[in-house]
Design goal:
The structure holds two protein chains of two kinds. Chain A is an alpha+beta fold. Chain A has eight helices and 13 strands. In chain A, 29% of the residues lie in helices and 21% in strands. In chain A, strand 4, helix 3 and strand 5 form a beta-alpha-beta unit. Chain B has two domains: 311 residues, 3-Layer(aba) Sandwich (Rossmann fold), CATH 3.40.50.11740; 40 residues, no CATH class. Chain B contains 17 helices and twelve strands. In chain B, strands 4-3-5-6-11-10 form a six-stranded mixed sheet, sandwiched between helices. In chain B, strands 2-1-7-8-9 form a five-stranded parallel sheet. In chain B, helix 9 links the parallel strand 5 and strand 6. Chain B is globular. The chains are: A alpha+beta, B alpha/beta. Strand 13 of chain A pairs antiparallel with strand 12 of chain B, so a sheet runs across the interface.
């Protein structure tokens, strides 16, 4: 992918006035398959997502795929609030699906998007979300080739839910899996943690904490491309979304039956995020990220991988945060400042606000 | 984050630790009263590095843990009423009542909102004039001023649909009760610095003098706690029993007078039941008669609560510092954060939750 975000984080050219519609808000009839459905498709969806595959408007997308292994993933997005500092439910859905493909080393190609809309949602809001989805898909170099919209009566869902599935191609020689970890491998984190979860939590309606924290939502596929270019020996990658870094490291340790030692003081965190976590009593290691990745690599290539990551805008703060060890298989240990080793467990319990 | 890193710097902690090792000659049992301190201790591993003569026991300073089970049951009954929006700190939502918790009540249809301050509940009351908004006002002397202010604000703004279900507990009577019980093993106390910020130190002087125990008002960061331990050990080794202030950046001798005035205006001292410990004289707060309209317990009559505490849970013994969480037969097996038998396993200040969350590696 050659297109990168400009310095203020946006892409050029993605602004578009709201088309003139027959209604200001989503009506049940917009999901009926009749005239209003057609208007919604023609005026809002197709101008944003249209391409030669989608524009055929058949019941299915017919795709030409290169020979090789396909990666296929799906995810649903129900974040509340739907707009939060740094993003919204739309770009989150695109980036999240792209990242799920990229973490397997796949090059994301095609996405589906399914919308469940609550009756009464302002069409202006939907338009804004679609614009940011268009921008995110363009930025990640993926095409939206099929989709669906349903409208449910007011109260049956919360404004808008989005499901997104994606297909990508895994290049030859790339074989990423959490079960690949070997003793003495190093664990690399691409940047600061907990930005997304705390941005959502602190912007939640009713929470009086004004923390000025931005979500890190971003598509990581171009960063992954750069990393795989410098080393095909990367063992595994995951994006620490729900459950945060703690959950991902535990998944790595369990799948590979190896131990992992995390050096907590090496984990980068934005001071504002740290402060918000302190105030709310939340452990940042368990908070969701939407634009970060954790990679496990053999020690000899770690420097090259970190250096490559740091040259990419989404990996500037990439750093080695831990090591794979033969002791305590399946368990993640964390060293405190007093030199005491403790177990970092899988997070338990629900994070009360919906965050993705 | 200079503010935080300064109080977590391991070098300073190690210097203080070396001094504790140097001066300790005999076994001492020290209780940290506050659950926030318990979590900081277990999280940073202070209990693992202290000399073996020093034993830390965990105190009753977790308001969620000591809220009586009948109050949780009452909260659930009130929250289930169709006209009620029930507002609570997140911590209370998963505390087990007799047969369910507040989150289960929400999944069964209760309108339950998680808030971070009583003022948010006031705002919800303003925005929903046709509903009854009830705030679950729990906590020690630290949250009482905010909860008192919410009542005063509600009165000032004429918000007739706001009330509080109050379960306020007071620290000094609890320490007195522990000290005067026959099974007390504690030689010195780390008092909760955040509580002392409101109350000041004079009440503790009476206790230190009467029971001949050192009490040090101590902050909640790891280095605060290490220094508090050092100050208590120094007193014990020198045969002193005084009130000292480690948390000088926050605690003043007379405390926060304005906050105490607001509390005294709205609340009055009452006998209070503590979960697992029992009723302690003059150890709680209730809403004064003048503000009775804001008292959810009086506004919503709930009767015939059939209280049922699991027999195997030893959280009472743990809250009194007589046992540690890992000495409980149910710890980590029958009782886990996702299936708690007692409040100490779910509260972010509970000793059992600290032990479960921060397990030392062998």
């Amino acid at each position: 992918m050659s297109d990168k975000k400009n310095s203020d984080g946006g892409y050029p050219g993605f602004s578009c006035p709201m088309p003139v519609m027959n209604h200001d808000t989503v009506q049940l009839a917009h999901g009926s398959g009749g005239k209003l459905s057609a208007e919604l498709l023609d005026k809002l969806f197709l101008p944003r997502f249209g391409n030669d595959i989608l524009n055929r408007l058949e019941d299915q997308a017919v795709l030409k795929m290169p020979v090789g292994r396909l990666a296929f993933t799906t995810d649903s997005f129900v974040v509340d609030p739907i707009f939060f500092p740094g993003g919204n439910i739309g770009d989150l859905a695109i980036n999240g699906t792209v990242n799920d493909l990229a973490m397997g080393g796949a090059r994301p190609r095609y996405l589906s998007v399914g919308f469940i809309l609550e009756e009464g949602l302002p069409l202006e809001t939907l338009h804004k979300i679609l614009l940011s989805m268009e921008e995110a898909a363009w930025g990640a170099g993926v095409r939206i080739v099929t989709g669906d919209t349903k409208v449910v009566p007011r109260g049956s869902c919360d404004k808008i839910f989005i499901n997104s599935s994606g297909i990508g191609v895994v290049p030859d020689g790339v074989n990423l899996s959490a079960s690949n970890l070997e003793v003495d491998d190093l664990v690399i984190l691409s940047g600061t943690i907990a930005d997304h979860g705390m941005a959502v939590m602190t912007s939640r309606e009713g929470l009086s904490l004004q923390a000025d924290i931005e979500s890190d939502t971003a598509a990581l596929n171009s960063l992954v491309d750069d990393m795989l270019l410098v080393s095909k020996e990367i063992r595994a990658m995951r994006d620490p979304t729900r459950g945060g870094l703690a959950a991902i490291l535990n998944e790595f340790a369990r799948s590979s039956a190896r131990g992992i030692v995390l050096e907590q003081e090496k984990v980068p965190i934005n001071p504002k995020v740290q402060g918000a976590c302190e105030i709310l009593g939340i452990d940042p290691l368990t908070v969701a990220n939407e634009g970060k990745l954790v990679a496990v690599v053999p020690a000899p290539v770690a420097d090259d991988v970190v250096e490559t990551m740091r040259r990419h805008p989404l990996g500037r703060k990439a750093v080695v945060i831990g090591k794979v060890v033969k002791d305590h298989p399946g368990v993640v240990a964390i060293k405190t400042g007093l030199g005491v080793s403790q177990i970092l467990d899988m997070p338990v319990g629900e994070q009360l606000p919906r965050i993705c | 984050m200079k503010f935080l890193s300064e109080y977590r710097d391991p070098k300073t902690a190690r210097l203080m630790l070396a001094e504790i090792r140097r001066i300790t000659t005999r076994p001492w049992v020290i209780m940290e009263v506050c659950g926030g301190q318990t979590h900081a201790i277990v999280r940073s591993g202070i209990d693992q590095v202290l000399p073996k003569e020093i034993s830390l026991v965990h105190g009753p300073g977790c308001p969620v843990c000591v809220t009586p089970i009948e109050t949780i049951d009452r909260a659930i009954e009130i929250a289930r009423r169709p006209e009620v929006i029930f507002c609570s700190f997140g911590d209370m939502l998963r505390v087990p009542g007799s047969d369910k918790d507040l989150l289960t009540a929400r999944s069964a249809g209760a309108d339950l909102r998680m808030v971070y301050s009583p003022l948010e509940a006031l705002e919800i009351a303003r925005d929903n004039p046709d509903r009854q908004v009830v705030f679950f006002a729990i906590g020690f002397e630290t949250t009482a001023p905010g909860n008192a202010m919410a009542v005063l604000q509600a009165e000032k703004q004429g918000l007739e649909n706001f009330s509080e279900l109050v379960c306020h507990v007071l620290v000094p009577p609890a320490i007195t009760a522990l000290l005067s019980s026959g099974d007390n093993l504690v030689n010195g106390y780390l008092a909760a610095g955040n509580v002392c910020t409101v109350t000041g130190l004079s009440e503790y002087e009476e206790i230190a003098g009467k029971y001949r125990v050192p009490i040090v008002a101590t902050g909640l960061e790891p280095n605060d706690i290490m220094e508090g331990i050092l100050m208590v050990v120094r007193q014990l080794e020198e045969g002193r029993a005084e009130v000292e202030n480690q948390y000088v950046r926050s605690v003043r001798y007379h405390g926060n007078v304005k906050a105490r005035e607001a509390v005294a205006e709205v609340f009055e001292v009452t006998d209070q039941k503590w979960r697992g410990i029992g009723e302690l004289p003059a150890s709680g707060l209730r809403i004064r008669n003048r503000f009775k309209d804001y008292d959810a317990a009086r506004r919503f009559a709930v009767c015939d609560l059939d209280v049922n505490e699991p027999e195997v849970c030893i959280s009472g013994t743990i809250l009194k510092g007589l046992k540690k969480p890992d000495q409980c037969p149910a710890f980590g097996t029958e009782c886990r954060p996702e299936h708690p038998l007692g409040a100490t396993m779910v509260s972010s200040e509970g000793a059992c939750s600290a032990y479960y969350k921060y397990k030392p590696l062998r």
